[in-house]
Amino acid sequence: MLENLTTLDRMALVTKYPFLLLDNGLPYDDYCWADFIPYGWWKAFGEKLCEDIAEAIEKDGIKATFSIYEIKEKYGMLEIYCDFSDSVWDVVRKYELLSKDTCINCGKEATVKKKNGWVVPLCDDCFKGAWE
């Protein structure tokens, strides 16, 4: 999760990308969907992901009804559960595949590492610092 996302950051993101607002009545200073994207992935492609989703929902005419239901890491890849249209599916799949080659900690190029049943994309530096 993003650790340095401030209330102002969240407000700016949710203003620019309203679909990042959690549909649970919590104020900005608690969480938005961007908080659930691991830091390395956010650093590498988070803003571009949001921009591409915004373009896709506009293109497919689902801007008013589009919702995100969950964002998480699963089996070393970014997983986004949301309302899908053809364009949104293409965007989400693109970033899911990109995530498996991007370090979840720092955003550098990574390879998938496996240890004790965990599958995590890490660069060599983060792997040495965390798992060796």
Short description:
By secondary structure, the chain is α+β, with helices and mostly antiparallel strands. Helices cover 39% and strands 17% of the residues. The chain contains 4 helices and 4 strands, in the order H-H-E-E-H-E-E-H.
What topology emerges from the helices and strands here?
Layout (H helix, E strand, L loop, with lengths): L6 H10 L22 H21 L8 E7 L2 E6 L3 H14 L11 E5 L2 E5 L1 H7 L2
Antiparallel strand pairs: 1-2, 3-4
Helix pairs in contact: 2-3
Task: Give a description of the structure.
This protein has 132 residues and is of the alpha+beta class. It is 39% helix and 17% strand. It has helices spanning 7-16, 39-59, 86-99, 124-130, and strands at residues 68-74, 77-82, 111-115, 118-122. It has a two-stranded antiparallel ribbon with strand order 1-2. A hairpin with a 2-residue loop joins strand 3 (111-115) and strand 4 (118-122). Helix 2 (39-59) packs antiparallel against helix 3. The longest helix has 21 residues, at 39-59. The mean pLDDT is 88.
How helical, in percent, are the residues?
A: 25-40%
E-strand count: 4
Uncertain spans? none
General shape: globular
> From the helix content, strand content and strand pairing, which structural class follows?
alpha+beta
Mean pLDDT: 88
How many whole angstroms does the radius of gyration measure?
15 Å
